Amino acid sequence: MKNGKTVISNVNGKMYLSIPSKKNWFVLGFSIFWLTGWVYGFYSVGRLLHYHLVNDNIDYFLIVWLLSWFLGGSSVISFVGWGLFGKEKLTIDKDTIKFQKTVFGLGKRRTIPKSEIKNLREHQTCGNLFSGCRLIPYGLNTGKIRFDHGMRSYSFGLVLDQPEVTELMSVLETKLSEENHLVEEEITGIQYEQLFRWEVG
Fold first, then answer.
1. C-alpha angle 177/181/185, rounded to 5°?
2. 3-class SS at 18?
3. Which tens digit of pLDDT belongs to each residue from 173-182?
């Protein structure tokens, strides 16, 4: 089932949610074009540095420049990777919630006991010009659905619009309340069985 940008599926009692990254094609196109120049610059300066090292002439400026150039290009590559292939995934099973923010399976992962999740709520991230919404295509902002675990808050749903957030909140609350109801029924059944055995005994 597709709910706006979110793909939802239920398999063997598990709920899977997948939210793709936001595509800013102008920024992605410019970044890819920039990376072609980055590769050429890295190759050219790398050859020059190699020439100096072979001739026992250490050029510290070239070393620092090359390292800075490498770090800058690596950041752009990660942004492009997220923009083209990044996904947020949420998996809810009987006992845990697992959420991921990955590119080709690489990235952040966290699994949290479902019973320890508190205060599921909507989170406004784009209230003003300084809220960081322009960073969403790079995967750098906080998500629009949040919950608490212990002393920390976690979020997901970077690219969701408000109607999608409201609908997805309803889906999640229903799923979590169903599981909690099943747990309560199971505990009640165990307590009743223990009481029955005590009375019979």
1. 175
2. strand
3. 877 776 554 4
